[in-house]
Amino acid sequence: MEYRTLGKTGLQVSALGFGGIPIQRVTEQEAIEIVHRALDKGINFFDSARGYTDSEEKLGKGLKGKRGNVILATKTMARDEKTMARDIETSLKNFQTDHIHLYQCHNVKTEADLEKIIGPHGALEALVKAQEAGKIGYIGITGHNDGILIKALEMYDFSTLQFPRNFLEDTAEKELFPLARKKEMGIIIMKPLAGGAFKRADLALRYLLGLNYSTVIPGMDTIEQVEHNSSLTVNIQPLSSTEREELLREAKILGNQFCRRCEYCKPCPQGLDIPTFFILHSYFQRYGLGDWSKERYGSIQPNVESCMDCGICETRCPYQLPIREMLKQVHGDLGR
Ligand code: SF4
Ligand code: SF4
Prior knowledge:
It is a single chain. The protein has 336 residues and is of the alpha/beta class. The protein has 2 domains: 245 residues, TIM Barrel; 61 residues, no CATH class. Helix content is 43%, strand content 12%. It contains 14 helices and 10 strands. The strands form 2 sheets. An 8-stranded parallel beta sheet has the order 3-4-5-6-7-8-9-10. It is globular. Bound molecules: iron/sulfur cluster (2 copies). One iron/sulfur cluster binds next to helix 13 and helix 14. One iron/sulfur cluster (SF4) binds next to helix 13 and helix 14.
């Protein structure tokens, strides 16, 4: 495993980090085994969030007695001081530790968010107090909107930036990443596989590993994924022109309007599992699994027919997807 410096924190992190969203889906025992295998493979950067239900707790259990050179990172949507202070305590308890290396302001997406965080009695005050008390090491920020994050970086000296970057999404390369580099911030890459959209996930990941970010953190919820992704970090090679062409062909087919499975649109008041519908639809459209997708769709309740068109999901989607329109297309193709 290659280790890289996480910007001005000076922390040494594995080029391949562990994204903590998917382990919500596996049992506690499975999560522990996955985390152990990740450690065996040299992964030392583990990222979670208060919003990822039991992810922090599962990581805490998997890492118990094996902390060594592990770098723990987590984040919360808390915007005010009181909620942030409470969330930091919860994260410490979940991770079974008295120190979290990196605590991030999660999914900062509007100027109002930013003002609350940085303003009087904002979340930042709790983060700085926790830092002074030694409960956390560094303060980072995450989000999907480069314009807002550029403002954030200009307003406060965050130590790290976590932002989506993959073969399809390179908007951050224009201004945001150059600014982060100028400020010597650690750059953490989320959504490296565009939510699993690429058939050639190995190429998509190798492409990013070759770009020298601090760490790239795909979500992993099987031992096979940990082994496969780790194998790509041995002797990182740039893509050949043929491999690049292959990814370009896929990128062209995917376009921009597709679900990255970030789950920010949840919960739907009608209980619709929105990303699952889009996953099934992608199997239908791209992998020729028509009968299988229709059968699976038919077994899910509630389905798209229960959508009451409230539009809440669309206000939460960081990619501004026209979710309602897309769901109608899913139902048109998969509904019997
Ligand atoms: S528009 Fe439909 S899918 Fe979206 S949150 Fe409302 S009910 Fe759920
Ligand atoms: S619809 Fe949008 S918010 Fe929901 S999982 Fe997909 S990309 Fe994320």
